[in-house]
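Amino acid chain
________________
===
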Amino acid sequence: MGRVFKYGDDVNTDVLFPGKYTYTVSDPKEMAQHALEDLDPEFSTKVKPGDIIVAGSNFGCGSSREQAVLALKYAGVAAVIAKSFARIYFRNCINSGLPALTLPEAARALNDGDEAEVDLASGVVRTNKGNFAFAPFPEEVQAILKAGGLIEYLRNRLSE
């Protein structure tokens, strides 16, 4: 169960992690301190582990920088729910172990400060506004998410 942080359409990667830090910040914990700082300057001090970002359409548009995912993941964000995602950002989320759910109904219904719980295994987001079902990720994608990302998943597979 986590708190919802709600944002609008076209939240781009430069807003998620400001480009001015691209070549100077490499530690994911430090990236987290700069997550959303131009859109929501207090985000990094308010976000708690398990919180959820809910957004409009085209979330993660812009460049393909992985820092835009890592900043959210290391800030404690448990999942991102949006009406739609930029294709590369969606893939970067999965590769980094951050669930990205395309749920337009939930994105419309949820508001900043609401509480929500994402159950990846059963394919449901539970909220005080109702439950929102989604098709669970394929088994391999669930394994990547559970491992914390594609690199850890592959390490685990190679060590078996």
About this structure: The chain has eight helices and seven strands. The domain at 2-159 is CATH 3.20.19.10 (Aconitase; domain 4). The chain has a mean pLDDT of 96.
